[in-house]
Specification:
about 10% strand, two-stranded antiparallel sheet, three-stranded antiparallel beta sheet, 5 strands, 7 helices, 2 domains
């Protein structure tokens, strides 16, 4: 385990311990979150580093196959020194009044929204040239599917660019309406909600992740 990885895992372990009311880190499931398990135990260097910031609690279960004892810690309680170390890391990483963290978050949010807006603009350009709706034409079921795919960019173009741009054909068959709404409800809406959910989750992770 390299020094940076060791340092990060120890810091994560201390933060997990702090997140519990009693300041205690359990081996299962807490250490599993760090990539350890019953076979892949923490290395001696990890234990030595973690021991600087708290106390290990041990158990001695009997190995029923070989009638041997194992010395493995099953929990760790952080001390005040460990809490102070995490506070010092946060002060250094986040800056005065958390301004560094705020600026990092705003920069991440700006680029996330910028990329989303750029993608939407490109989608609108494609819709303008390849999915425009003619007032004089009657559209059937296939075009209902096609127009449903581009309903969002055409809707935005209608309200933000030119009110003459349609997002739903005025003259159409019954099949057009059926397929339009099937595609819109079963595919377009879920995709929008999924994308917005991912965007919100990424922003929340950026804000609450102590390593960002």
């Amino acid at each position: 385990m390299s020094a940076p990885v060791l340092k990060k895992k120890v810091e994560m372990a201390l933060r997990i311990a702090i997140s519990h009311d009693d300041g205690t880190l359990g081996y299962n499931p807490d250490m599993y979150r760090l990539g350890f398990d019953d076979i892949n135990r923490p290395s001696s260097e990890f234990n030595e580093e973690l021991k600087k910031y708290g106390t290990f609690h041990y158990f001695r279960p009997i190995d029923m196959d070989n009638y041997l004892f194992r010395d493995d810690w099953n929990s760790f309680t952080i001390n005040e020194h460990g809490r102070d170390v995490i506070k010092a890391i946060d002060r250094e990483r986040n800056g005065l009044w958390g301004l560094k963290k705020l600026f990092r978050f705003l920069r991440f949010a700006f680029w996330s929204l910028f990329v989303s807006a750029l993608g939407l603009v490109c989608f609108c350009v494609v819709a303008y040239y390849f999915a425009s709706i003619d007032y004089s034409k009657e559209y059937s079921w296939f075009m209902g599917i096609w127009h449903a795919i581009f309903v969002i960019p055409n809707f935005l173009l209608h309200h933000c660019y030119n009110s003459n741009i349609l997002y739903y054909a005025e003259t159409h068959t019954t099949a057009y309406s059926v397929f339009f709404w099937i595609v819109f409800i079963t595919s377009i809406l879920p995709s929008i909600f999924q994308y917005l959910k991912k965007l919100i989750v990424d922003l929340l992770k950026q804000w609450f992740n102590p390593f960002k």
